[in-house]
Amino acid sequence: MPRSDAENRKRWAQGRKPGRDHSDRGARLPSLDAALRRIRLLLCDVDGVLTDASVSIGGPHEVKQFNIRDGLGLVNLRRQGVKVGWISSRPSPATARRARELKIDFLRQEKGAKLPAVESLLAQTGFRWDEVCYVGDDIVDLGVLKRAGVAVAVASGVAEARAAAHYVTRAGGGQGAVREVAELILKAQHKWARIVAEHAA
Questions:
Q1: Architecture of domain 5-13+31-200 in CATH?
Q2: CA pair distance 136, 30, nearest whole angstrom
Q3: How many CA atoms lie within 13 A of 98 on its CB side?
Q4: What is the maximum span of the chain, computed from C-alpha positions, in angstroms?
Q5: C-alpha span between 43 and 125 (Å, rounded)
Q6: pLDDT tens sequence across 103-134
Q7: Structure confidence by residue, pLDDT tens digits, 58-76
Q8: What's the gap between Cα 136 and its chain centre?
Q9: DSSP tag of 122
Q10: Contact 55, 47 (CB under 8 A)
Q11: What is the pTM (predicted TM-score) of this model?
C-alpha cells in the first residue's frame, strides 16, 4: 500500500535509511521539501515505473504503454531546468522512441547493474548524489535508491524497493507515479504555480 503524505514525511523525519552511508551528509537529513529543492536531476527506471511493467510481444514490434500525464510532468521539469534521465537494464526500441518524443536528456539502456550506469552519468554531468531523485520499483533499483538524495518507490513496487525509499507514491507504475514525483519537485522549488498560471492564461 502507498504511504500517505504524513507517513512519507514521518519516515523522512526519522533520519537515516537502512544501509546508507551518511559520512558525507552530516548528522541530520534535511526535510523532504528541502531535499526536493536541491534536486537537479530526476532519474527513472522504465519498466514498472513509466509503464505498468507489461510488455506486448508477438507482433513485429514490442509494444509498451506510457502514461501521458507522466510525459507532461517530465516536460514541465525539463522546461524548468531540471534534467531528466531514464535508466533501464532492458534495452527496448519502444523506450528509445518515447524518450525521443519527450526529448529526455539522458537515456541509458544497458544490461546489468544500474549503479555503474548512474555513476557514469554523474561523472559525465558533474551532478552529486544529493542532487538526484531516483524513482524505482524493484530490487534492481536498490543500489541507486540507497544513494539518491531523494529515493522514491512507486506504490506498485516490490516491498524491498518501498522499504528503501524516502517516499512511496500514491499512484502505481504507469499510472501517474512519475507525474506525482515531478509535481513534488516543482512545488518544493516554487515552480508549479508558474506552470499552472501559464496554462490558465
A1: 3-Layer(aba) Sandwich (3.40)
A2: 22
A3: 21
A4: 54
A5: 13
A6: 999 999 988 899 999 999 999 999 999 999 99
A7: 767 888 999 999 999 999 9
A8: 6
A9: H
A10: yes
A11: 0.86
